[in-house]
């Protein structure tokens, strides 16, 4: 079916490429976490919990990540069992505990961030800063319109 929107087919191709990119990124996260104590998904939640070095609730983290609270809770519980995060009392809400990344969790994040940076540097070697910034702005704009 033809569209009267001049960029519709290009946008559809971009979205398909984003799906392929996401699948590839999931595979890379599994490769980067191989031999560590976490999976790629656990790394993602650990990273989100560690942002800003301030304890936060699971619900706050889930909203930030665009995920269901229950799925982030399950991962946070696994991270706690591994000693990578701990639960703290929340003075503002007795039911919603705060989650803090432990010293072991921060050390693991540092290790994984070094590996990720090496991978990023390799992937971005033939991309200009302007290309990356333009792509980032476009993807943000599309995401914001979707929200």
What's the Cα radius of gyration? 18 Å
**Approximately how much beta-strand content do the residues carry?**
5-15%
What is the N-to-C succession of helices and strands? HHEHHEEHH
According to CATH, what is the class of one domain? Mainly Alpha
What's the average pLDDT? 93
Structural class comes to mainly alpha
Question: What do we call the CATH homologous superfamily of one domain?
Answer: Winged helix-like DNA-binding domain superfamily/Winged helix DNA-binding domain
Uncertain parts:
none
Can you summarize the main beta sheet?
3 strands, antiparallel
Give the tally of β-strands. Answer: 3
Please tell me the CATH architecture of one domain by its name: Orthogonal Bundle
Tally of helical segments: 6
Give the overall silhouette. Answer: globular
Helix content: 55-70%
The CATH topology annotation of one domain reads as: Arc Repressor Mutant, subunit A
What distance lies between the first and last C-alpha atoms, to the nearest angstrom?
26 Å
In order across it, which strands form the biggest sheet? Answer: 1-3-2
